[in-house]
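Subject: Sanity check before I submit

Could someone independently write out the structure tokens for this chain? I want to compare against mine line by line before I put it in a report. The sequence has 273 residues.
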Amino acid sequence: MIVVFTDLDGTLLDENYSYEAAKPALNYLLRSNIPIVFCSSKTRAEIEVYRREMGIKDPFISENGAAIFIPKYYFDFPYAYTKQLDDYNVIELGTEYSVLRETLERIRRTTGYEIVGFGDMTVEEVARDCGLSLKEAKLAKLREYDEAFSILEGDEREILRLIREAGLNYTKGGRYYHIIGNNDKGRAVHILTELYSKKFKDVKTIGIGDSLNDLPMLMTVDIPVLVKKRDGTYDMDIERIMEGKLLKAEGIGPSGWKWAIENIVIKGKGDEK
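---
Independent answer below. Compare away.
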């Protein structure tokens, strides 16, 4: 059984948050009952919108690996989870949002640097900054385990060092830094892969991403795929770290995503890797 783990922003979604270019490949996976697991920095509320639109009923990973949301009865065997919420069994790996906000505020206060997080912004400001509708921006602000932030003025290295000294972590997405707890996409992908392996026995995992916060996911899957960024280049840090272990898709964002599914799943070229 193939399981596809995928980032959203800049990968399955283009800069206008459209997945139109990926639709043929997406529909193939849906028809073939191949699990599609979103593994994103987006919030649960945001991810649920895309799952409903695309007709996906598989588990998903929110806010850079902070929580795994598994539909109840998806796995027909017992497994450990943190809590039940709505129709999900939730495995929580991240740190509470309030702790992240307090840490960022303390760094801002002690350094005097200008750091702006989503919690400091109005719905209108998030919409304008991200190119979202007001409805989408409202969902983006419903953060549970991850604070997206920008450094408008200050020493970037010092801010990141202070985050580490506070016992927390950070990652960098396409638009923002993210302050997070002891979680990353790779740890969450590993946990879900173990569950899929118990369900299907023989599992091959594909991971598709575009930026540095996808690195832990790409390092965890069997077939890591990097799509081109909006400017037509690949993430240099990921290329350097995963040299020789990476499949580079021929296309930007969702076009690259489509290329990956066509060449690995449909044509079976992933078997050569």
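---
OP: Matches mine. For the report I'm noting this point. The two ends are 17 Å apart (CA to CA).
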